[in-house]
Amino acid sequence: MKGWMEMQLHVTLDTRLEKVVSYIPQGAVLADIGSDHAFVPCYCIQQGLIKRAIAGEVNQGPKEAADGQVRLVGLEEEIDVRLGSGLSVLERGEADAITIAGMGGTLIATILEEGKEKLDGHERLILQPNVDAVDVRVWLLSNGYQLLSEAIVEENAKIYEVLVAEKGEEILYSEEERVRQKELRYGPQLMREKSPTFIKKWTEELHKREYILAQMRAGTDSEELKRKIQAMQAVIDEMMEVIS
Ligand SMILES: C[S@@+](CC[C@H](N)C(=O)[O-])C[C@H]1O[C@@H](n2cnc3c(N)ncnc32)[C@H](O)[C@@H]1O
């Protein structure tokens, strides 16, 4: 992810956001929640991908940055910048596609849960959690969403997941509870594809946990520590199974 950003006359996106945008249906009304500089809506309009957009921001600073960016490219008619938390900035059913990118999965799931009365079921959700994608998958599954696609991309030594969902019957997950729990953590499609980026992500996570386990083993013996070591070992075993 980029850090502090300049406004752009001809907006370009990084690999992560390009992937997010690739799932927006042509001609959609887009709501980009947590829009920051409104780069996604500006890019989509400039490329002729969408009809119009709402850029939602909860914080004044990023909202002003979005206003400034939209003014700079002269898209005030097409992009409505709104201040407010999550989906509260929307009318029910107003958007055909909703992007929520560059936040933790727990926050994305909270935004969806708190704003679910704004969803009339026709929207495509395109979600890019930086961490804890499991929380987003759990929310989607418990709220009648079907995972249409999952992608994993690497940029500047960071790895990002993108989840695309629409209302519908879920068919990707296993009936078996133990397998389903694993699919929720690693992604049912990503687990099957086992792309080099997926293997890299979980190998790195595995190494982090092996390091923690070694620290734990060096600790003072206690029943609690033994339980923690056992739990960590189980996580490591599962990761090894997933990447093998
Ligand atoms: C790290 S930036 C990501 C910006 C852009 N979506 C991207 O992926 O590059 C997260 C943005 O989400 C905004 N944000 C956080 N919580 C929010 C909420 N509940 N509703 C709307 N925006 C929120 C923050 O103010 C911040 O501008």
How would you characterize the overall build of this protein?
With 244 residues, the protein is of the alpha/beta class. 44% of the residues lie in helices and 22% in strands. The chain has helices at 15-21, 39-46, 60-72, 105-114, 133-142, 177-186, 188-193, 196-217, 223-243, and strands spanning 28-33, 50-57, 79-83, 97-103, 124-129, 145-155, 158-167. The protein has a 7-stranded mixed β-sheet with strand order 3-2-1-4-5-7-6, with helices on both faces. A hairpin with a 2-residue loop joins strand 6 and strand 7. The longest helix has 22 residues, at 196-217. The protein is elongated and about 65 Å long. Residues 1, 33-36, 56-59, 62, 85-86, 101-103, 107, 111 line the site of S-adenosylmethionine.
The biggest sheet amounts to: 7 strands, mixed
Percent of residues in beta strands?
Answer: 15-25%
Cα distance spanning the termini: 29 Å
Under CATH at level 1, the class of the largest domain stands as Alpha Beta
Helical residues, percent: 40-55%
Tally of individual domains: 2
| Helix-strand makeup class | alpha/beta
| Chain oligomer state | single chain
Shape: elongated
Q: Mind telling me which CATH architecture of the largest domain this is? A: 3-Layer(aba) Sandwich
Low-confidence stretches: none
CATH topology grouping of the largest domain: Rossmann fold
Summed over residues and divided by their number, the pLDDT gives a mean of 94
Strand segment count? 7
Bound molecules: S-adenosylmethionine
Number of helices: 9
Element string (H = helix, E = strand): HEHEHEEHEHEEHHHH
Full CATH superfamily name of the largest domain: Vaccinia Virus protein VP39
Radius of gyration: 20 Å
